[in-house]
TrEMBL record:
One of its GO terms (molecular function) is catalytic activity. SUPFAM superfamilies: Radical SAM enzymes. This is Radical SAM/SPASM domain protein, ACGX system. Keywords: 4Fe-4S, Iron, Iron-sulfur, Metal-binding, S-adenosyl-L-methionine. It comes from Lachnospira multipara. Residues 1-213 form the Radical SAM core domain.
Length: 349
């Protein structure tokens, strides 16, 4: 069985949208948009391959930006992937997709193309730009026709949380292969990040009910329960049980930050996670990833530092979202603000 290591690689900041929850535009980073030169792309790619050879991992790339297709050397890069028999996923926009583009993506090894829906029409177009909602739903069919798996991701905040069940209906109707959502990480934008733990639990319950109804009907959309707080919810309803084989001090799931995933920005900066503010650990154009892996990344693997999760019996599988904790409370190891677990819970030691 192959052991994969994933690289979320932002090759450019250029984008057709100005999303209100974007890390680049909401934080003011857009004053200096960056794109990698071809020489820098080659150096980054070779550094990633060198790291994977050292640790006997198979590389997997999530190409993003901005919109990666806008990079002038985008096709040259994915042809390089093809030459090395490397598969990849695109996290991008719908605006430049057509049958020809999607077929070419498929031929170079693109397995999934992830688009975003962040509300029903009016809300989504407010988040992103007018016309984006209809264009996104339309391009799901174009992606599917090429044999690429279409993925829809929703960023959830208090601003749009009540629209998520409706989004699920629209995504299923459009024929998306995969649907998932993740929470908004406060990053200087004007979105409401005050969703309480119990409000979030109620959202998970509503989505779980809808997922099960669709699954019972034979719906082909796969509902990816991406947020790790699903583990806590499923434990409470009896669908997740702590395995008998579980050993103390072992980590079996939860956040992949500094575990089997890293982020590379167009500047070459390496982040433990793009969603975690100030998580830069080095620069791919100056540092060997393998050297950083055994030094700078260690600060994100001290699981006993989690203020709440370290006392929880679900620590090895959950730990919430450290990025949301960092964005809200200023520390990677702070409490996840949407974790509804009370101090008198039997899960907390």
């Amino acid at each position: 069985m192959k052991s994969y290591f994933s690289f979320q690689w932002h090759i450019t900041d250029e984008c057709d949208q100005r999303c209100k929850h974007c890390y680049i535009y909401s934080s003011g980073e857009h004053t200096c948009l960056s794109s990698m030169s071809w020489e820098q792309i080659e150096k980054t790619f070779n550094n990633c391959l060198d790291f994977c050879r050292k640790y006997n991992r198979t590389p997997y790339f999530y190409l993003t930006g901005g919109d990666p297709i806008l990079h002038p050397d985008f096709w040259k890069l994915v042809e390089t992937f093809k030459a090395h028999d490397i598969k990849y996923t695109i996290l991008g926009n719908p605006f430049h997709l057509n049958d020809e583009v999607c077929q070419r993506l498929k031929e170079t090894g693109c397995e999934k193309y992830q688009l975003s829906i962040d509300g029903l029409r009016d809300t989504h177009d407010w988040f992103r730009k007018p016309g984006s909602y209809d264009c996104t739903l339309e391009k799901i069919g174009t992606i599917n026709k090429a044999g690429i798996r279409s993925v829809i991701m929703t960023t959830v905040s208090k601003t749009n949380m009540h629209e998520v069940p409706g989004i699920i209906d629209e995504v299923v109707k459009a024929g998306a292969n995969v649907f998932a959502f993740a929470r908004y990480v406060p990053s200087g934008g004007d979105l409401d990040a005050s969703m309480t733990g119990m409000e979030y639990r109620e959202l998970l319950a509503a989505c779980d009910k809808k997922f099960k109804e669709y699954e019972a009907k034979g719906c082909e959309t796969y509902f990816n329960k991406k947020d790790h707080l699903w583990t806590l919810y499923e434990y409470e309803i009896g669908e997740f049980k702590i395995p008998d084989f579980a050993k103390p001090d072992m980590i079996y799931g939860g956040c992949n930050c500094a575990n089997c995933h890293i982020t590379v920005l167009p500047t070459g900066d390496i982040y433990a996670c793009r969603r975690v503010a100030d998580s830069k650990v080095g620069n791919v154009l100056e540092d060997r990833i393998g050297d950083l892996w055994e030094t700078s990344f260690e600060k994100y693997r001290d699981f006993d530092k989690f203020e709440k999760c370290s006392r929880c019996k679900l620590k090895a599988w959950c730990r919430g979202c450290p990025a949301v904790a960092k964005g809200t409370n200023g520390s990677f190891y702070a409490d996840d603000p949407q974790c509804w677990l009370s101090e008198d819970s039997e899960l907390l030691a």
